[in-house]
Amino acid sequence: MFTKKFFIENTKTLFYALIIAIIIRSIFIQPFYIPSSSMEPNLLVGDRLFVTKYSYGYSKHSFPFSPPFFQGRILQNKPKRGDVVVFKTPADNRTDYIKRLIGLPGDQIQFIDSNLYVNNSEILKSKLKNKKKIFCGENEFDTFLFEESISEKKKHLTVYSKKNSYQNSDPFIVPDKHYFFLGDNRDCSKDSRFLTSVGYVHEDNLVGKAQFIFFSSDKSFGSILYFWKWNKSIRLDRFFKKIK
Hints:
Oligomer: single chain
CATH superfamily: Umud Fragment, subunit A
Order of helices and strands: HEEEEEEEEEEEEEEHE
Distance between the termini: 55 Å
Largest sheet: 8 strands, antiparallel
Strand content: 35-45%
CATH architecture: Ribbon
Number of strands: 15
Number of helices: 2
CATH topology: Umud Fragment, subunit A
Number of domains: 1
Structural class: mainly beta
CATH class: Mainly Beta
């Protein structure tokens, strides 16, 4: 028979477990789910990944509901160009986005004839495929697949639409203490190019660095609860894949 002591002890256990989970999630590591195709081909819809919260230090956005405990960042580490970063969108300081860091404070970013330039230097990219099917929402379209060298040591895959690709832009000048982000799916990404919805991201809005995928499932086969479809929906080849 359940006693009052039994309920009190179990309530305490659940409370302590909740506190420990909040501390781990806030300070060390947090799981995230990829809901859109803006980072294809590197991150797919249905990928679940771990983000390290300590990589760039801590701001109020490191904690659930962004409590105003303090201003600025503590234990700050500067992110590096090419990092895949989770951040709170400046539009509402609440929604989590994941994009690749392209522009550091003071940088000039510009697209000229579909080529990306940083500080007037073209970012070199090598074409790997003339045709690769990529999703944009529910729609599939043909792209060119490239390996892009964002720095001497940092390379990643990126795709550009074969039709109506993003061609030219005015120069984007990244303000002090802000960063400029792009999706790897260059023609299907709401990112820093869209100044009214995302734009330049303040350093306080950085949540953490994406490290690796721990689970992945293809939602086109239905809910993960449909265990009889796991042989088709579970992407075992993506488990524990490091994010570049």
